[in-house]
Structure formats: C-alpha cells, structure tokens
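Issue 218. Parser rejects a valid record. Input:
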Amino acid sequence: MTSIWPDVVVSIVFITYAIVMLLSFGGLLTWVERKQSAVMADRVGANRAYLRIPFTNIKLVWLGLFHGMADGLKMLLKENFKPRTHDTVGYFLAPFIVFTPVLLVFAVVPFGGTIVPGHLLPVLASWFGDRAYPMQIATLDGGLLIVFAFSSVGIIGAMLAGWASENKFSLLGGLRAGSQMISYELVMALTVLGLILVYGTLDLGAIVRQQSGTIGGVLPAWGIFYQPLAAVLFLTAAIAENKRIPFDLPEAESELIAGYFTEYSAMKLGLFMFSEFIQIAVVGALFATLFLGGYNLPYMTDAGFTFPGGRAVELSQAVRVPLQLLTFLGKVAFLCVVQIQIRWTLPRFRYDQMLGLSWKLLLPVSLANLAVTVVVRWLTGSAS
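Output the parser choked on:
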C-alpha cells in the first residue's frame, strides 16, 4: 500500500513557502513604496524608525526597514474602534473576505518546475522513491478559471465593508469597487482568452512549459511576444482590479476619506492595506507566469538550457530548482517595482474617466486583439 504521507509533507512545504513568500512581499513592499517614492521626489524617505543595540548608542536604521515593523505593531496594538451603527456580521467578515482570496489565487500559480525529492536529497530516497512533484500547490486543468473566481471574491468583501459600515462615504467606495471590478474584470478575461488560443490550455503550469520553446528558432516563446498588446491590457486591468493609483477611486482620500474602509481601525484596517500590497505580488506572479515565461529563464526547461542553434546545457536538479525559484522571485520583484513606479507616476483618474477608459478604450481594443488572434490562428492552421 502506497503511503500518502510524502505527498502530504510536500503539500505542507509548498503551502508554507507560498504563504511566507506572499507575506514577506507584502511587508517588504510597504518599505519599497516609501523608498521608491522618496527617490522619485528627491527625498530621503523613511529613516526614523530604528533598533538600538542594548547598552550602546548604536542605532540600526537599515534604510528604514523598521518602519514596516512599526506599522505592523501599531496596527496590532491600536484600539479597535467600531461605528456606533453598523452590521455586526458583515463588518467583521469583510476584511477577511478581502484578504483570504488574495492568498488563495496563488494556489494555482507554479513557482518552480518539477522536483524529485528523492533525487535532490538522497537521504530521502527511501521515503519518497521516484515521486515527482510540480512546484505548484494545486495542479488544475482550469487554473485560470480559479484565478478569476477567487479574484472576484475580494470585491465582495470591499462592497460588504462599504455597506456594513453605515457610512455614506464607505457605501460610495463599495459601489465604486463593484463597478470597477465589473469594468476591468471583463478586459482581463478577454486578454487572457488570446493566450488560451495561443497555448491551448487553461493550466498555468502547461502555459509556462510551452513558453520554454522558441518563436522562429530564436525568440523565446513567451506570452509577451505572442500577445504584446494583451500584456499591456492585462497589467492595466490588474492594477485597476487592485484599486491602486491611478485607479484608487474606491478609496480616494480627497473624495471619500478612505472609501470602503473609512470606518475600520486597528488590524482590520491593516488587513485591507496588507491585502493590497500582497496583491501587487500576486499580480506580478500572474503576469510573469502568463507573459514572461514563469519560473524559467529564456530557452530553459526542466532538463536545462537549449539555445538557438541546438547547443544544449544540462542542469542537475540541485542547480535547476534554486535557479527556477530565484528566477520566479526576481521576475515578481521586478514587476512589483514597475507597479509601484506607475502608482507614483500617474495622477488619479476621475470616476467617469476610469469607467470610460475601460468601456470606451480597453474593451474595444481587447476585443480587436482577440479577433486578430483568432484570425491569425485560423490562417496558420493552429486553431484547435
């Protein structure tokens, strides 16, 4: 009888890795946003919080990294104020409904290739045998459908928070969040349909593996080369889904105080803010997976590198696995910096401009891109 415990242990390790990675990105990005905005404005940025070495006058500032820790402690220790009139159940559940789906989306994102624990660590060979595991929490044929299903749930939490707070500004923020989701979720879906036509699958792992090939024997078969316009549309819609500037209309401070979480304080407010930073990393992970070859470098597969011209370089699992993990993390980090750069570069849209951008520009362009993709696939005889 085959034991299931090796599979259980691997699943626990993958889940733990994903949670730690996302939480680490969420915390670190609070610092990156401060320092990056400071660099853009020619300021010093966060540099006041520090740790003093006991019995000395040495202060560890570390470029302001302790500001994020101070923020976390502040959120945990602050008094949890509640509005005098509010819906108790909805008010309590809303932050968790916003926060949880952000983590669940990553369950179908592959963060590495196939790992064979028994070969990677010979000491475990007797327990794992030749079992191989794709470095992905849930390997599902319809992984992209899961992404859209979970990403839509978070908006329900924002709308619930706005309604349950019994505050007109919160309610307006919740209504804006709902209309924004409807507008830009459609654009995201249409851009991804073009990739589905190209790669012929909804499985994110299979999409990454197909990007290990080449286009014309030279160019990496990444989604961004097959669908460059879709890549721009996807990133734009994803930033709008995350309600980041220039699309932060549901929480526009100058109009709605803080929008749908105006009446929240302490760690409940922290969950709303933390989920936003984690979603920056999730958007980066999805974009890297769909358009930038995922966890692989150009011309790289689980066997190693196959360069144009046929020259092959094999990689041992001890080299390949860390390289794929670092490659994925590097791509996600780069895309996080790009999103923060956009946030501190563009001004906020007006509400009518935000909706008009989606329905009058992005939606028609995404439909045109999909139509062109269908025609090209049909003409080349590649449509399935």
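Fixed in the parser; the record now loads. The longest strand covers residues 304-306.
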